[in-house]
Design goal:
Helix content: 40-55%
Strand content: 15-25%
Number of strands: 8
Order of helices and strands: HHHHEEEHHEHHEHEEHHHEHH
Length: 329
Amino acid sequence: MLDPRQSLEFERPLVELENKIGELKQLAGGELLAAEIKILERRASRLRAEIYSNLSPWQKVQLSRHPLRPYTLDFISRLSDEFFELHGDRAFSDDEAVVGGLGRLKVLGGRPVLLIGHQKGRGTKEAMRRNFGMPRPEGYRKGRRLMELAARMKLPIVALIDTPGAYPGIDAEERGQAEAIAKNLEVMAGLPVPIIAVVIGEGGSGGALALGVCDRLLMMEYSVYSVITPEGCASILWKDQAQVEVAAAQMKMTAEDIKQIGVVDEIVAEPPGGAHHDFDEAARLVGEAVARHLDELVALSPQALLDGRYAKYRAIGSFLTETASQPPA
């Protein structure tokens, strides 16, 4: 059962109803109790459909940040066998906001891959240790080291994106935050192995893109992807945090918006009520999508992968051109 105190405001009526159903199921009741449970389950089903079919962009942003949402390691533990985490950037330290290692994908019969992603923390102590999923330069350099290792081993790469953005602290800037991100973009663009990136929560700015240059970009149904947070946008444009809902709508940052403009290749459905309601089902849906795309990519030659990746990013965006008027004859 979900804790209503950790639920979003718009989903609390549903969480309370589902918890009541769970409590009734734990009681030893007769037919009368079973009938009441069925009535409540139908009511919960209708309420769930009503809530999640009419979510605003801001509510989807809130879902992408849900404190109970599965994080990268939650997916990795369900997607892979024999995962072996690798640490350190071999230059400064081990940034725990980025995790990565070698594993075998269950959905592809144990195919070896490199799994990498941003990792947020649960609870105050772990969240601080993971820096709330905001990597410093050493996190991106660790990621680059592991992806270059995967290329040498001819292993596909699966990247899970979930970060508010790169850490903006002075220490990160002193150690070359911008250079670390830029180098990752350059390196990922030229890796001769399949790369699939999945936005599982927040995809924030260059901090997300540093693990997101790929052959196929997938987004979970209630994930978001944008150059800045709605809070940051509202602060810059209106200098008013009350405008975050307006900002979220105008930024076109939801999975549906990103699909419409041709950036994302597939939207991965989530369990009813969101991924935080069923980690196992969420991982199964992501795994099936990854397997489907990976099956297509592993059949391509390294040069075909690079050519397709180049074409993918060249094709993003729409442009209006004006034709110069012809002078009168």
